[in-house]
C-alpha cells in the first residue's frame, strides 16, 4: 500500500492549517502601529525635510505679513543631526536675498527670520538707509521704509552702520521692514551653523491683529486667500 507523505496533502489544507496557527493582529494593535509610523514620519519630515513656521511680527513686511504660515526647506543648507547640530549631508551655502530661519544668536531657543544681505568676507556698510556691499550700492528691491527721518550713527545703527567685514562662516541679515527690524545691525552676525532652513512658500495666512480667541472671532476668521500658495522671493 502506498504511504502518504506531507506533499500528498492538498495545498489549500496546508494553508488553512498555517493560517489557524498564526493569531491575527488585533485592531487596537494595528491602529497603534499606524499612529506610531505616522508620528515617526512626521518627525522625520519636520527634522530633515520641511518645517512649518508662523510669522508673529512685522519685521519682514511687506514680504511676510503677521499671521503668515510658511514652509521652510530644512535640507537646502545641509542635513543636520538634531541636538548636536552636526551636518551629515552637505548642502548649498546661503546666497544673497535668501529668506532664512535661524537660531537667534542672543537666545538660541528663539527662531528668527530675515533676509541675507552680506556673505562671509563681504564689507557691509549702510549710509542714510542705503546698503553698500564691498563699496557698491545694492539694488535692495525688497527693502521697505516707513520712516523718512534719518537716525545718526551715534544714536543707533538703523540708518548708518559700518563698514564692517562679515566674519568667516557667517552672514549679515536684515529685515525687509528696515525701520522696524531687530537684525544684524543691532546684534551682529549669524553663524551658518545656526541656520535652520530657507523659507520658500506661504501655505496659509490670516489676519490675527484683532483676534482674541472668542467665539465670534472664530466664526469670522479673516483668511488672506490671495496669499495662500504665495512663493517667497
Helix-strand blueprint:
Layout: H1 11-21, H2 27-49, E1 50-54, E2 68-73, E3 78-80, E4 87-90, E5 99-103, E6 111-118, E7 123-127, E8 130-133, E9 136-137, E10 161-165, E11 170-174, H3 184-187, E12 190-191, E13 195-205, H4 215-219, E14 230-231
Antiparallel strand pairs: 1-2, 2-13, 3-4, 5-6, 5-13, 6-11, 7-8, 7-10, 8-9, 11-12, 13-14
CATH-defined fold name: Umud Fragment, subunit A
- Beta fraction of the residues? 25-35%
Structural class: alpha+beta
**Under the CATH scheme, which class?**
Mainly Beta
Major sheet: 8 strands, antiparallel
Shape: globular
The level of helicity is: 10-25%
Q: What does this 3D model show about the protein?
A:
With 233 residues, the chain is α+β, with helices and mostly antiparallel strands. The strands form 3 sheets. Strands 1, 2, 5, 6, 11, 12, 13 and 14 form an 8-stranded antiparallel sheet that branches. Strands 9-8-7-10 form a 4-stranded antiparallel sheet, with no helix packed on it. The protein contains 4 helices and 14 strands.
Amino acid at each position: 500500500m502506498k504511504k502518504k507523505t506531507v506533499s500528498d496533502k492538498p495545498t489549500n489544507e496546508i494553508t488553512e492549517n498555517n493560517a489557524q496557527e498564526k493569531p491575527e493582529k488585533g485592531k487596537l494593535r494595528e491602529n497603534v502601529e499606524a499612529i506610531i509610523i505616522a508620528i515617526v514620519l512626521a518627525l522625520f519630515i519636520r527634522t530633515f525635510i520641511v518645517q512649518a513656521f508662523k510669522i508673529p511680527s512685522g519685521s519682514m513686511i511687506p514680504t511676510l505679513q503677521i499671521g503668515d504660515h510658511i514652509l521652510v526647506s530644512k535640507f537646502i543648507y545641509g542635513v543636520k543631526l538634531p541636538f548636536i547640530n552636526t551636518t551629515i549631508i552637505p548642502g548649498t551655502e546661503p546666497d544673497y536675498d535668501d529668506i532664512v530661519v535661524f537660531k537667534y544668536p542672543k537666545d538660541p531657543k528663539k527662531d528668527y527670520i530675515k533676509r541675507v544681505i552680506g556673505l562671509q568676507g563681504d564689507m557691509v556698510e549702510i549710509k542714510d538707509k542705503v546698503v553698500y556691499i564691498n563699496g557698491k550700492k545694492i539694488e535692495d528691491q525688497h527693502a521697505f521704509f516707513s520712516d523718512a527721518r534719518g537716525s545718526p550713527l551715534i544714536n543707533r545703527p538703523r540708518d548708518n552702520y559700518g563698514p564692517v567685514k562679515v566674519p568667516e562662516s557667517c552672514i549679515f541679515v536684515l529685515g525687509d521692514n528696515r525701520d522696524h527690524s531687530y537684525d544684524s545691525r543691532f546684534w551682529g552676525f549669524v553663524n551658518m551653523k545656526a541656520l535652520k532652513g530657507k523659507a520658500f512658500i506661504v501655505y496659509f495666512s490670516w489676519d490675527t491683529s484683532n483676534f482674541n480667541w472668542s467665539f465670534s472671532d472664530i466664526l469670522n476668521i479673516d483668511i488672506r486667500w490671495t496669499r495662500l500658495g504665495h512663493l517667497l522671493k
